[in-house]
Amino acid sequence: MVLKNASILVVDDDADVLTALRLLLKPLVKEVFTEKNPNQIISLIERTHFDIIILDMNFSGLVNTGNEGIFWLNRIQKQKPETSVILMTAYADIDLAIRGLKEGASDFLMKPWKNEKIIETITTILSKKTATSLQKDGFNTSNTEIIGDSEVMNDVFVKLEKVAPTDANVLILGENGTGKDLIARALHDNSNRKNKPFIKVDVGALTSSLFESELFGYKKGAFTDAREDRKGRFEAANGGTLFLDEIGNITLGQQVRLLTVLQNRQVTPLGSNESIPVDIRLICATNEDPKVLANEKRFRKDLIYRINTVDITVPPLRERGTDITELSHHFASLYAEKYNKNGFSFDPGFISKLKKHDFPGNVRELQYVLERAVIMTDGDVLKPEDLVFSSIERSTTTKSFETTSLNLDDIEKNAILTVLEKHKGNVSKSAKELGITRAALYRRLDKYEL
Ligand SMILES: Nc1ncnc2c1ncn2[C@@H]1O[C@H](COP(=O)(O)OP(=O)(O)OP(=O)(O)O)[C@@H](O)[C@H]1O
C-alpha cells in the first residue's frame, strides 16, 4: 500500500501533538483522524477502517507507566487485528518499547519526534502490510511471495487489494514472466473463494481437440479415448476461481464456445445432453494487447468485455527500479537454500550489470540468471562474471539454427530454436506448435541452457 491511500488515526491527550501530526500527515495520506480520548478508540475503529493508529502510551490523570498504551494496543488488536499500531511515548523507556513490540505493536516512536522518522516508519509499515496481505493463506501453501516495492508495483498491489474481495472478472495484462500467474493466485487467495479450488488452464497451449474436453469435460464413449467420465476444468473450479492463461492465443471458434459458457453459466460435457451449472470467478491473462487483438479481428470484442470487468497491468521488470535488487536478494537466498550453499553477498558490479540488462524475459529471466549464478559461483560473493544472460530472449535476432547433426538432442534443440524464432520468443505459441506444454518447453529450455 502507498502512503497516499492510507487512513491514519492519531490518539493522544495532548492537543498540540494532535494538531502537529494532523498538519504533517494531512497532505501526504488519504485521511487523518485525531482523538483526545482513548475511550473513543473502540467505537472509532468499529465505524472506520484505519490502516495505522499512532497511539500515545501515557494519558494524563493516570500513572505514567505506559500500561495504558499497552492496554489500548491489546484492545485494538483484539478488535481489528489487521490494523497496525505505532506506539509513542515521551519517556525514553526502551524496556517499554520492547514490551510494546512483543505485544504486537508495529513500531515505536519517542517524543519529541522527527517528522522524517514518522513518515519513514509509516511508509515501511504500509509496504510490509501489502506484502503480508498478499502472502497470507495461499502463498503460504504455494511458498511464493510477491516481491516488489517500486511505485508501479505498489499501484498493482493497491488495485489488487481493491479487486480481490469482489467477484469481478479480471484480465491480467503484461509481458511474459512479469508475474501474472502470481497476481492471479493472489486475487484468489484474497477473495471469499480462497477456500475453494483455484484451477489454472493454459488455454493458449491447448490444441483444438483438447480445448473442449479439457474445459468442459466428457462422458465415457464421447470419443475413442474417452474410457471414463471426466470432469472439465470449469466444473472442477466450481465455487472457486478459474484462471485461463494466454487467453489471447485461442481461436475465434474457441472464443464462441467460451462466450456461450460464460453467458449461460453452465457447461455441457462432450457426449452429454445435460448442462451443469457452474459458479466460477474468471481470471484471464495475456501478454497481448487486447485492443490490438480486437482491431486485428483476432479476438471478439464481446468476449473481451465479458472477461475484462477490471484489468490489471503488471509492469515489465525494466520499469521497476530497485525491485531488481530486492528480487535478486530473494532469488539468491532461495537458491542458496535449494543448492545447500551459504548465503551470498553481492559485489557492487553485480547489481549494476543486472540493472544495465533490459530483461525481455522479466522476472522469470532474472530468476534463471540468479539460479545459474548461484550454481556456478565458487565463493560467497556473487560477481558480474557470474551473470550469463540466456539466449532464448535474444532468439528473435538469431537467424539460423540449421544443423547437419543427427543427434536427437541437437535436433530437439534446433526445433525449439526455430519455433521460438518463428513466434518471436512467444513460449505459449511455440509450445503449442511443438505439441508440448509450456512447462515441458521451459524444462527443455533449461536443459539446453537456452
Ligand atoms: N514479484 C515477484 N516476486 C517473486 N517472484 C516473482 C515475481 N514475479 C514473478 N516471479 C516469479 O517469476 C516467474 C514467472 O512468473 P509468472 O509465471 O507469474 O509470470 P507470467 O507473467 O505469468 O509469465 P507467462 O506470461 O509466461 O505466463 C515465477 O517463477 C514467479 O514465481
TrEMBL record:
Residues of the Response regulatory domain: 7-126
Residue numbers of 4-aspartylphosphate PTMs: D56
UniProt xrefs under CDD domains: AAA, REC
Positions of the Sigma-54 factor interaction domain: 146-375
Name this protein carries in UniProt: Sigma-54-dependent Fis family transcriptional regulator
InterPro entries listed in its UniProt record: AAA+_ATPase (IPR003593), AAA_lid_NorR (IPR058031), HTH_Fis (IPR002197), Sig_transdc_resp-reg_receiver (IPR001789), Sigma_54_int (IPR002078), Sigma_54_int_dom_ATP-bd_2 (IPR025943)
A GO BP entry: regulation of DNA-templated transcription
A Gene Ontology molecular function term of the record: ATP binding
Classification via Pfam families: AAA_lid_14 (PF25601), HTH_8 (PF02954), Response_reg (PF00072), Sigma54_activat (PF00158)
Keywords: ATP-binding, Nucleotide-binding, Phosphoprotein, Transcription, Transcription regulation
PROSITE patterns, sorted: RESPONSE_REGULATORY, SIGMA54_INTERACT_2, SIGMA54_INTERACT_4
